[in-house]
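step=predict obj=Glycosyltransferase RgtA/B/C/D-like domain-containing protein n=552
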Amino acid sequence: MKNRLFEGISFLLILVAIYILNHQLTTIADVHMGDEAFYLYQGISNFRLGLQTDWGPAYSLWYKFLSFFQPDTIRLYYLNMFLMSSLSTIVLYVALRVAQFRWYWALYCTLAFHFSPINFPEGVKVSILLFLLTLLVFIMSARYLRQRLHLACALLTLTYSVFAYFRPEYVVPFGVCFVLFIGATFWFRQSFYLVAGIAAVVLLLFFGVGSPLSEKGEKAFKQDFSYNYTMRHPEDARLHEYNNWVDSEVMSQLIFGERVSGLSNALIRHPKLVLGDHLLPNMYNLSVQLISILGTYFTPLTYLRGVSALEPLLYRKLTWLLLMAGFLAAVSIRKTARVAAQRVLDNPWPYIVAITAVIAPVASSIYSMGIKIRYLPPFYFFIPVVVGALLVSIQLRPWLSQRIPAPKPVSPLVRAVLTLLFVLGVGGWMFQESQQQTPTRAIDRKLIEYTRQLTASVTDRDRIRMFENPDALTTYLGGVAIAYERYKRNSDFHEFVKQNDINLIIFRPEIMHYYRNDTSMQRFIEHPPQAFIRKLGFYPNTYTLVRQDLLK
């Protein structure tokens, strides 16, 4: 009865937290036009741009499934955001409880994830969906395969092989889990038929659907390497006129002095450059991101009066050195490790999933990460599982344990008061979080609405041919996108527009800036062909050019 009461309180508070975060979702979150839009576009257009197996086709299928319930693309985007930020919170709480942690620890860690920037308002949700699915696999295995660890490892291995078609870096944990599964099969003396079956399924996916590892990884490396390099070397004037997202091939050739095919090729030929300007900065950036994740668990404390003034101390190395010294002085590492190891051996499944789940985001972060905290949701399972196990395993050193009296049983009244204070504290935390949910300018959504109104008379949306990236406006409008990278700067823009039958051009400020020295494009803007109408753009000091026949 007591457990049901606490579970009821926890789920009630989680539902309140979900309401706080999502009841005005469309006013506090913009519609992002980028990777997420590309996934969405591929799904709703039935892979119009081809089945690009290195671009998360399985996630596009998820959007296709949701589109049956919500055909409007803007509402579809928000529906996915709502589901990801809500379902993952509920399932994380269940997973931590299944991992045998106390309700208050599970609730606190769940709310830390729920209110974190990694969950909301971060726009790219594929990693959140994979986090959700990983937790579901963990729960199902813990429930039905508790005494059959080799079967649980088989399911996890198969799961990660499918996840590679959501995010290619999941090939890495698949390989680790496959080796672990073979080892478990040996250890438990099971038949190798299941190993052969999973290998057959993976090969069937690889040859039937296609490899999840191809050009996207190479391009991502060059884009992020160029980004890292320009951030570290602003004095390199050769790169000032280029954009790392569009001109990554040109920029990487300028930096390396030759064309490289990817990370391994660049590392072999230019190890000092790749290590110094990419891999090591990425490792540092990853550590900073992980510290920021740890910081979200202390966020409630910063809302207390006077405590917020101490927040800068958390970012000082001296603070962490003193805490580490105090920990080593008070805690017996050897005894604690022995108790923790026994706890893991008694129930290894949560720790297997927690560790394997973070392999992919770590690999991806070191390989290509610039500032992408969105890769790291699995750490919100890893951290509470590992830290929780350590906290309950702590053994004090003799000089301290002898001075601490043996704990007495806590009376029901004291337990009830502590529970009430905890619930009130969580309520205060959620109230403070509700005050943080402020309206955004929603520039991208307003741009979409502006363009929708502009093209309202176009009944056949396929007639729209935009000079635009394929992961932007066309996702929400329909039509065809002629990517920026297809136009070689300082060539004949008039001829480019004619050859590609472009009939709608919306110049954003960043595009105007990028092409500011392109005389051909500037002439097109100032003196457009007679077939085009020049209108004031959505942004100040920008223009929209529409071919007249499009609006007829």
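step=describe
Strands lie at 465-467, 480-482, 504-506, 532-536, 543-547.
step=end
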